[in-house]
Amino acid sequence: MKSRVPPRNYQTEVPTQLGPVDKVPLGIKMPFGRDNEFGFFGAITSTRERYHTNLKMLLMTAKGERPMVPEYGSELKALLFEQNTEAHLDSLLEDAITASVERWMPEILIEEVLVTRDTTKESENFYAANIKVTYSVVAIPASENELEITVEV
Question: The domain containing residue 121 runs over which residues?
């Protein structure tokens, strides 16, 4: 009878500083750029930074934009064309962020979404929203972080 492979021992402590052993690339830094340490593209070496980048990419990707996965992304850009009243649109944007994160990144807990917009007719960014998302990663204790994005049409 074959023996079963024992379960992996996952590290429960999050390292506070990266040492030479911990410099393992986990993803590509955004925006793209040359990095002398890892090669042509800069690399993400921290789990927190990886979650931050993945969340930003999820929210800035419009549904239908990604080939072969048309449901991936959020509806933030499409919602900017909705009725432009403060309470109505802000709640729609918050719901869109929460729905996207719950579906595609369930390991992230959204704590607060703050939407600010300039709705005056004279504004050059009438169809733009500044969004500040406060979130934490469920598996990492004390991992509260903020993501600020601007969604424009």
Answer: 27-152
